[in-house]
Amino acid sequence: MPFQSPFQSIVADHPAERSAIVEQVLGGLEQDGVVRLPNLFTPDQLSAMQRALNARLTRLRWSNLDGYEKTELYRHMVEDVLTLEQGFVDVALHPII
C-alpha cells in the first residue's frame, strides 16, 4: 500500500475539509501574495526527494549522463524531475497545489 500522509487522507476522505483548506490557502494568497502550505510529505519522503534531486544537481547533463541543464547563468533545471522520486509526482497531482 503506498504511503498517504495524514493530510492526504483528510483531503481524500472529507471533501468539506478539503474545500475549507483550499479556501484558506486561496484567501492567504489573495491577502498576502504568499502562503505556507500544510505538510504534504513525511520526513522520510521529503528526505528521499532531496537525495534524488541533490544527486542530479551535482553535475551538468552531458550526452546520456544524467544531471542538470543550464540555460542561463543562474538557472539550473532538471527536466525529468517527475521521474526522480514518487513524491514529486504526488505534489504535482495534489489537490491543494
Q: How would you sum up this structure, described in words?
A:
The protein is mostly helical and 97 residues long. It has one domain. It is 49% helix and 7% strand. The protein is built from 4 helices and 2 strands, in the order αααββα. The protein has helices at residues 6-13, 15-32, 43-56, 86-93, and strands at 69-72, 75-77. A two-stranded antiparallel sheet has the order 1-2. β1 (69-72) and β2 form a beta hairpin. The two termini are 23 Å apart.
Tally of DSSP helical segments: 4
Using the alpha-carbon principal axes, give the shape: elongated
The radius of gyration computed from the alpha-carbon positions, rounded to a whole number of angstroms, is: 17 Å
Task: Please give the share of residues in helix.
Answer: 40-55%
- Strand-residue proportion: 5-15%
- Give the number of DSSP strands: 2
State the low-pLDDT regions, or none. Answer: 1-11
The H/E string reads: HHHEEH
Measured between the Cα atoms of the first and last residue, the distance is 23 Å
Task: Provide the structure class.
Answer: mainly alpha
Neighbour order of strands in the largest sheet: 1-2
How does the major sheet shape up? 2 strands, antiparallel
The tally of structural domains comes to: 1
Average pLDDT reading: 82
Secondary structure layout:
Layout: H1 6-13, H2 15-32, H3 43-56, E1 69-72, E2 75-77, H4 86-93
Antiparallel strand pairs: 1-2
Characteristic terms for this protein:
97 residues; two-stranded antiparallel sheet; mainly alpha; 2 strands; elongated; 7% strand
